[in-house]
Structure formats: structure tokens, C-alpha cells
Amino acid sequence: MTQIRRLFVCTNQKSGVGEAVAKALKKELKMQGLKKLLVGGERQQVRVQTCNCLDLCKQCKKGPGAALVVYPDGIAYGNVRPADAAALVGEYLGRGQVVKRLQIEE
Asked: N or C terminus of the chain: which is more exposed, having fewer CB within 10 Å?
């Protein structure tokens, strides 16, 4: 059975940045070959989707980036910019290590 991991990127407050982050994440997933993974013997697919609101505005209003939530993991990232896509894909999706500098502690 294939498990789907989704990266929801908020475009509500900063639509241009959110769209650019989503595009950069999709590009990185392809470049790093992580769009479809084999994790613990199970197939895993990664999808990037934009959404209207993640209710994390308070965390992102001060910076130039967008909010992002990884489902079903429940990890929230804030102030994410397109340049952060490589680290999020490589470190978090590739090696399973949370990118602390972007993580939002709720």
C-alpha cells in the first residue's frame, strides 16, 4: 500500500511567496528523486499542495516567507522561502531530520 505524505503550503497571506515555495519544493523533489520513496519497506509518495490558510499567520507575518505543514507528520514550518526547498526536501524528507531553523513550535 502506498502512503501519501502531503506538504501544504499557505498562499493566503503571501500568495506570491507561497506559490514560489510550492514550485521550488516540487522541483527539488524531482531533482533529489524523492517524489516517490521507499520508507521501511513501504512505498511513500510526496505531494505538494497549496492551501488558503493554515492558521499560522502569527508565526509568519514578521518574515518574508510562507507557512508549511507536513501531513500526516504534523510538523509545521514558518517563514519558508523558495531557497529553503532544498534543505526541507533533503534533510526532512530524505533523512528524516527536522529543519530546526524553520520549525514552528506550537
From this structure: N
CA torsion angle 91 92 97 102 (round to 10): 90
Which amino acid, one-letter code, is at 17?
Answer: V
Task: List the Cα angle 65/33/50 in 5-degree steps.
Answer: 35
pLDDT digits (tens, 9 = 90+) for 80-105: 999 999 999 999 988 889 999 999 87
Please state, in angstroms and as integers, the Cα–Cα distance from residue 85 to each residue in 9, 15, 22, 40, 70, following that order. 12, 17, 9, 24, 13
* pLDDT of res. 41: 63
Res 94: pLDDT: 84
Which CATH number fits the domain that encloses residue 70?
3.40.30.10
Whether residue 42 lies inside any domain: the answer is yes
